[in-house]
Write a structure and sequence with these properties.
The structure holds two protein chains of two kinds.
Chain A (H helix, E strand, L loop, with lengths): L1 E12 L2 E12 L3 E5 L6 H8 L7 E6 L2 E7 L2 E4 L2 H8 L2 E4 L11 H11 L5 H14 L15 H13 L5 E5 L7 H16 L3 E5 L3 H7 L2 E6 L2 E6 L1 H5 L4 H11 L1
Parallel strand pairs in A: 3-9, 3-10, 7-8, 8-9
Antiparallel strand pairs in A: 1-2, 1-4, 4-5, 5-6, 10-11
Helix pairs in contact in A: 3-4, 3-5, 5-6
Chain B lengths: L2 H37 L4 H16 L2 H16 L7 H26 L3 H9 L4 H31 L11 H12 L3 H27 L5
Helix pairs in contact in B: 1-2, 1-4, 1-7, 1-8, 2-4, 3-4, 4-6, 6-8, 7-8
Classes of the chains: A alpha/beta, B mainly alpha.
Bound molecules: adenosine-5'-triphosphate (ATP) and magnesium ion.
Chain lengths: ~250, ~220
């Protein structure tokens, strides 16, 4: 089943055309990585998908439900109530975590399931402890974010997103704010999610990681998708811009 | 006049000063929030007008504002202002302090990183949930030191009520001092303001400590 479909997305900031007709499809259980140079519009695409930013033109569907449709040539967002329902389908992990500093680790994870989704408190708590165990953070439930390393904070942020049981999980450079030693522990967690067939869209600068875990890789440059396909296809592509991008990374 | 009698007389002034202090806080803290929302409104007209009101309240002497509040019912409508003196003081102080608090609240709200709001959106917190659960607790921690300064100033500012002849501590001390040619009432008043502010500082530091469980 197609979990996410974005069609003909266009977005400008003032005179700057950041996304020029981008389409993206993600099926159930698929892991899609988005790579590309700085300023190519990767974050903007993710922010439009997660509705932190509005698009200028295009369509977005989650599990077949229209979040944005084209009506008479204009993109129209669904009604607030419908949109809220649709937003239940995804989660987002930020580059700089954005944990709530005044909440303990456990409360960061459980507050939205309990107070937004109105789920049973005991059940949510038990699930959160399970998630923390998976993240290797069982002993940190009562800590505050500032008492944790960046890698630990990011794993809490992943647990917080997972606690809402999203169908699709987005990551925007989840390891860019981390030291190399801390990067691997976060990548390991994401990899294990991939093995459990969590549907994910990951913007990353970790090429080896993208290559290893992705079903599909998308290379963006200057607001367009230049190459997309399996990791083999993309990383062995003869496209000049792609080769130049990979070359720059190696130096 | 014996010291005990003097103290007894002064204590009625202390009570009145404390009344001004507490009533002003009770009204200005929430009113400041309303002004702050007005100031931060996306509606340009609302934010413009509120901004202008706040700048006037902060840019003119409180003493003058007290007089305006006290006398305007008489000059505008010819009403008798007999029983209006104390209410006028509370209204004047509350509006004035609300303006200062509004600006402090605003600085605190603007200090919350954008990412906090984005995380709240993604987790589907409603607007009120986002404000009361995520924004406000962090704002309170940020603004406590500035609030402490302002509240300490309020303790001392209560003496400005003398400008419309309200008999609070300072006014009373002045009267007793003049009648008995002695400085002692002023000394007592000074000690009172000082100790009151000491208590305010201790209480506020207690709040700060309570919120220091996270960075
Ligand atoms: N809110 C905004 N207002 C104006 N310009 C913006 C805004 N957000 C992004 N941009 C611009 O849009 C372009 C694309 O930005 P975006 O953050 O999507 O790039 P990116 O591919 O994520 O880059 P990076 O790898 O550095 O994170 C950049 O030129 C950026 O300056
Ligand atoms: Mg980015």
């Amino acid at each position: 089943m197609e979990y996410l479909s974005m069609k003909n997305i266009k977005k400008s900031f003032g005179d700057l055309e950041v996304l020029k007709d981008i389409s993206l499809h993600v099926n159930e259980g698929e892991v899609v990585s988005i790579i590309g140079p700085s300023g190519s519009g990767k974050s903007t695409l993710l922010r439009i998908a997660t509705m932190l930013e509005t698009l200028d033109y295009g369509e977005i569907h989650y599990l077949g439900e229209a979040a944005v449709e084209i009506v008479d040539g204009f993109s129209v967002y669904a009604k607030a109530k419908k949109l809220r329902e649709i937003k239940n389908n995804f989660g987002l992990v930020f580059q700089n975590f954005n944990l709530f500093p005044h909440y303990s680790v456990l409360k960061n994870i459980t507050d939205a399931p309990i107070n937004v989704q109105k789920r049973n408190k005991k059940e949510v708590m038990a699930e959160a402890m399970e998630l923390l165990e998976k993240m290797g953070l069982s002993d940190k439930a009562d800590y505050y974010p500032s008492q944790l390393s960046g890698g630990q904070q990011q794993r809490v942020a992943i647990a917080r997103a997972l606690a809402l049981n999203p169908k699709v999980l987005f990551f925007d450079e989840p390891t860019s704010a981390l030291d190399p030693e801390l990067t691997s522990e976060v990548l390991k967690v994401i990899k294990s999610l991939a093995e459990q067939h969590m549907t994910m869209v990951i913007v990353t600068h970790e090429m080896n990681f993208a290559r290893n875990i992705s079903d599909k890789v998308i290379f963006m440059d200057k607001g367009v998708i230049v190459v997309e396909g399996s990791p083999e296809e993309v990383f062995n592509s003869s496209n000049e811009r792609m080769k130049e991008f990979l070359g720059k990374l190696q130096n | 006049m014996s010291f005990e009698v003097m103290l007894e007389q002064l204590s009625s002034g202390m009570l009145k000063s404390m009344m001004i202090f507490f009533l002003t806080l009770i009204f200005s803290l929430p009113l400041g929030m309303v002004m702050c929302f007005g100031r931060m409104s996306k509606n340009k007209i609302i934010s413009g007008i509120t901004g202008f009101i706040i700048s006037i309240l902060r840019g003119t002497p409180l003493m003058l504002q007290l007089m305006v509040v006290y006398f305007f019912p008489y000059y505008l409508f010819g009403w008798s202002i007999g029983g209006w003196r104390f209410p006028a003081i509370i209204v004047g102080f509350s509006i004035n302090y609300a303006a200062y608090f509004a600006e402090i609240y605003r600085s605190g709200i603007e200090a919350i990183p954008k990412g906090q709001h984005e995380a709240a959106h993604i987790l589907l917190y409603s607007k009120p949930q986002e404000f009361f659960k995520i924004t406000l607790p962090q704002v309170i921690k940020i603004i406590l030191p500035a609030m402490t300064n302002e509240i300490i100033t309020l303790v001392k500012d209560t003496s400005l009520a003398f400008s419309i002849s309200y008999i609070e501590l300072f006014n009373l001390a002045q009267q007793i001092a003049a009648a008995n040619t002695t400085m002692i009432p002023f000394v007592v008043a000074a000690i009172f303001y000082y100790v009151f502010n000491l208590i305010v500082s201790v209480v506020m530091r207690g709040f700060e400590k309570k919120l220091s469980y996270y960075d």
